[in-house]
TrEMBL record:
Keywords for this protein: Hydrolase, Metal-binding
Protein's recorded name: Uncharacterized protein
Listed transmembrane segments: none
Lineage per the UniProt record: Eukaryota, Viridiplantae, Streptophyta, Embryophyta, Tracheophyta
GO BP field: mannose metabolic process
GO terms of molecular function: alpha-mannosidase activity; carbohydrate binding; metal ion binding
């Protein structure tokens, strides 16, 4: 685009801050959808996001799988239309 680099950097920083703040709300919402019980928001501490999807790196999954814990994967479609993709774990 035509913006100066410091403007683009500031915009990226603000997006990152907003994303980080929204993670807790999203985790609580997903916890309530997966296990709808009274106080379901308390389960949100177990739900973590993997923001580095483009490099196939997700430290929370590596920690859980290496210690023998179960792993639940939640995949959602944020688009406004149906899509079909292969998900490889």
């Amino acid at each position: 685009g035509t913006s100066q680099q410091h403007v683009a950097n500031d915009y990226a920083k603000r997006l990152a801050i907003g994303h980080k703040e929204a993670e807790k709300v999203v985790a609580e919402s997903i916890a309530c959808m997966v296990s709808p019980k009274p106080g379901c928001a308390s389960l949100a501490t177990n739900i973590q996001q993997c923001p580095l999807l483009n490099i196939t790196n997700c430290p929370p999954t590596e920690a859980d799988l290496s210690s023998g814990k179960k792993l639940m994967v939640v995949i959602y479609n944020s688009l406004g239309w149906k899509r079909s993709d292969v998900i490889r774990l």
